[in-house]
Each structure stands twice: as C-alpha cells, then as structure tokens.
Amino acid sequence: MATTLSSFALIPIIILVIIVNGGEARPSSSSNNRPKAFFVFGDSLVDSGNNNYLATTARADAPPYGIDYPTRRPTGRFSNGYNIPDLISQKIGSPESPLPYLSPELTGQRLLVGANFASAGIGILNDTGIQFVNIIRMYQQLEYFKEYQRRVGGLIGAEGAKNLVNQALVLITCGGNDFVNNYYLVPYSARSRQYPLPEYVKYLISEYEKLLQRLYDLGARRVLVTGTGPLGCVPAELAQRGRNGDCAADLQRAAALYNPQLERLLQELNRKLGRNVFIAVNTAQMHNNFVSNPSQFGFVTSKVACCGQGPYNGLGLCTPVSNLCPNRNLYAFWDAFHPSEKANRLIVEEIMTGSTTYMNPMNLSTILALDDTT
C-alpha cells in the first residue's frame, strides 16, 4: 500500500479508563476550583501540533488544514477545525486545549491546564511509522510526561503535581497505525512475515498493556484509551483496497480481531488493580453508524473525503490544490483518514451523554458528576 501523509491514524473505539478516587491524595481547595488538567497521548487523531516542531513529513501545517478553526489557519491538527481533544477540553470546562508539549508557549500557569504529547504517525510499536523518521514514539511521550511532572513540581511542589496528575483526565489513542503504517504498509511487510494476523494482534495487545501500566505508574487515574475503528472503511482504504465501494476486508478483519482483545485486556487490568477501572466507549459502533447511514447524521457521504484527490478523494495528501468540498459539515471524513470536525463533535457528544450502547457502564457526564461529589 502506498504511504500517504494522511495515513497516521484511524477512527477509534474509545475506552474510558477511570479510577474513582482510588485512595489518591485529594487536591487542595484551590485545585478543586480549577478545571481538571487534561493530558493527551497518541497519534494524528489527537496531535495538536507537536509534529510542527519536528523534521518529519507527518505534518498538517499547510492549508486547507484548519480552514474551520477559529484562526482559519493550519495548527498541526489533522482536521478542518477542532479535534477530539479540543472538544473534550470544552466539555470539561478547561480554559483552553492543552498545548503541544513541544510548544515554547507551554510555560508557567499554562502548564496547569495539561499538555498534549501526541505525535502523528506513531503506533504502539516503536517500528510503526519509521518512514516518518522524527516522530515522538510512545515511550518518549511517556518520558515527556515524567519530565512534565518535574516541571509542574517546580511551580506547585511535588505533592501538588502528584495531585494534579491523579485528578486529571487523560486521553491515549494509538493502534491504527500499527496496521496501516506497519503490518499492511507494503505487501509482505516485515511484521506480516513475522506474524500471522491473529498472532500480531496478540503481540500488539501485550505491548499496549505495558504502555497502559506505565501510564498508570506515572499517576494517571482517568484515562481515555482508544483502539481502532472500522479500518477498512476510510476513504484511503476504499480507494486503495476496497472493491466497488465496499470496505477493505483485510483491514476490517484486523479491527474485528483487535478491538475485542483490547476490551478484554482492560477488564483484566481492572481485576489486577482490584477496582472498576475501565469503561468501554464504543466509538467504532458510532462510526459504523456513519458508514451505514450517513444521512441520519446529516452527512451526504461517509465514503468521499472532503479534501483530497483520486477515488473517494482518498489518494495522496490534502493540499492547497486538492479537491475541497464547500461545506465540511456534510462530510464524515475531512481527509483520507481523519474525521471532520462535525464527526468529532458527534463522537464527543456520545462520550459525554451516550447510552450504555456506547458508554458502558457510564458516560463521561456521570463520571464528572461523581468526581464533583467525592
């Protein structure tokens, strides 16, 4: 499969990982009056501009990216406007979205809002996205999180930093690239020769467990963990692998194997920690709803990307010379792989208020209400 700049991430199943005040220290009264800090880890679905500071091709720093962002300029987000972290920030009452960790503006009191460590192109595995060269792999994102806590400790003390992290909301999204930009990147890839698909999925899950345990060890107690969505149904895969507009079967099989095993992993971590830690958020089902009945959600299509070229606007980069739809609200996909801002809004609304079909056993509004009373 040809590599494209857009092939950095895919629509997720989101798993909300939460420990309800599992004995951690409570913040001071002044901390209680401050909105939750918010930390973001992962790939291009949630990168808000870290890659702008890196020598990599995995960037969204040119028009028409950002065409519907308040500044009308590209920000490094792989979106026409806001991405999922932006919209969650608004829902939790944050004064602003967490800045990219590499941003020189992330200093002083702005550190207390949180930080975004995500980097387009990364995966669970260190060899995922090697073609993009300089990206912040997951182990390095977690090292930056450790460094961040030392920096915040210089502002509010070590105990204050610990409390801030314990009470924060965390989002981590990775996994899609381990299929698109690794296993299925080229025919007979190194990983596909090393593992049959079922064994590769098991390997990914075992490596993801290490990342999640490390994140917990670093103090994260409320974590949104994303898996993969319908990998074969995005415009890029329709253009390159699909037949007659049908989703690509091999990538759909990968998602069907991976996501249930991720949920089982989270349940096992629950048991290991001895408390109800993980809450599944079935964003993949939401996206399947878009694919099967886009008009129900106000979209004219879930097959054709707003920005791009070739079949389904699914080939190559989104650039100033690409086809560009006049109304982004009518498209489920902004580019060959990434949802439009409107699709992101629908996903976040379900995270906040969705039924147990999408948020099991409770939605984020319920969780925030519980936090406010404890």
TrEMBL record:
Entry keyword annotation includes Lipid metabolism: yes
A Pfam family hit: Lipase_GDSL
Record's signal peptide: 1-25
Key words, A-Z: Hydrolase, Lipid degradation, Lipid metabolism, Signal
InterPro entries (UniProt xref): GDSL, GDSL_Est/Lipase, SGNH_hydro_sf, SGNH_plant_lipase-like
Domain of life: Eukaryota
Annotated family: Belongs to the 'GDSL' lipolytic enzyme family.
Protein name per Swiss-Prot or TrEMBL: GDSL esterase/lipase ltl1
Lineage, broadest ranks: Eukaryota, Viridiplantae, Streptophyta, Embryophyta, Tracheophyta
Gene for this chain: LTL1_3
